[in-house]
Write a structure and sequence with these properties.
By secondary structure, this protein is of the alpha+beta class. It has seven helices and four strands. The protein has a four-stranded mixed sheet with strand order 3-2-1-4.
């Protein structure tokens, strides 16, 4: 399976200052050359389980292709029962692997992604360093990867405890509560804000500009937070319809005066 992944499964990471966005840090670093001058102790390691899972999917796909071609050109090589059992077993594993891949994609980009083991986390760093030491390897043995080292942070120091894998139930409840509160505030602002502005300034071009801007920004926010095209389209259309109804009422009242 290793030969299926050109760059291997391990990447190097470096420490990024706290509270500095990754894109800003990369811009301030002025290129990749500076990351190659760090000492071995300033590098960490990262393994993406999702990459390994994609290689597993590729291996299953190759097995299905081999089975399909063999059944087409050499159907008498095995019994019908053996062929059926082999195809059924491999196909079931492949379908499950695709479903697992879709599940893993939900955590992509999250700070505490359970499918990424990275040295910025205390427990992950211990396990990664233990295995690298077992094989007698350091960052110097991955010289070609230093230029592509990923700046990450903040790194855990052990103060206040280490971050658990995934999230505790308390953290999940708090995160869900704050996300719902934030959603309510943002949704209310997008509805109440344009209504107040359009009610105070009853000008046609102003109403059209405000509607266009609010619907555009709302659509971009939905595209950022929602994962499916249908959900983004539906929420944007509903919001635009609500705002247009309010504008229609305002225009009708203005025309009746």
């Amino acid at each position: 399976m290793r030969r299926l992944h050109r760059n291997g499964f391990i990447t190097l990471v470096t420490k990024r200052p706290p509270y500095v966005p990754q894109w800003a840090y990369k811009l301030l670093r002025a290129g990749r050359g500076q990351r190659t001058t760090l000492s071995d102790g300033e590098y960490g390691y990262r393994i993406n389980v999702a990459d390994m899972h994609r290689m597993y999917m590729r291996q299953l796909q190759a097995r299905l292709i081999t089975t399909g071609i063999r059944l087409h050109f050499d159907p008498g090589k095995g019994t019908a029962r053996e062929d059926t059992e082999t195809l059924e077993c491999t196909l079931r594993k492949y379908v499950q692997a695709v479903q697992d891949h879709e599940f893993m994609a939900r955590y992509s980009g999250q700070r505490n992604d359970p499918f990424v083991a990275s040295s910025e986390r205390l427990h992950d760093n211990y396990l990664l360093m233990r295995e690298m030491t077992w094989y007698g390897k350091t960052a110097s043995d991955m010289e070609a990867f230093k230029a592509r080292a990923i700046p990450t942070g903040p790194w855990e120091t052990g103060e206040g405890g280490a971050q658990p894998i995934g999230a505790t139930r308390t953290e999940t409840l708090k995160r869900g509560l704050w996300s719902r509160i934030a959603g309510a505030l943002v949704g209310g602002a997008f509805l109440v804000g344009p209504m107040w502005l359009l009610a105070l300034k009853q000008e046609l071009y102003l109403q059209l500009n405000v509607t266009t801007g609010c619907v555009s920004v709302f659509g971009i926010l939905m595209a950022w937070y929602l994962s499916s095209l249908e959900a983004v389209f539906a929420t944007s259309v509903v919001y635009a319809a609500v705002v247009m109804v309010f504008i229609g009422v305002m225009i009708q009242e203005k025309g009746g005066r």
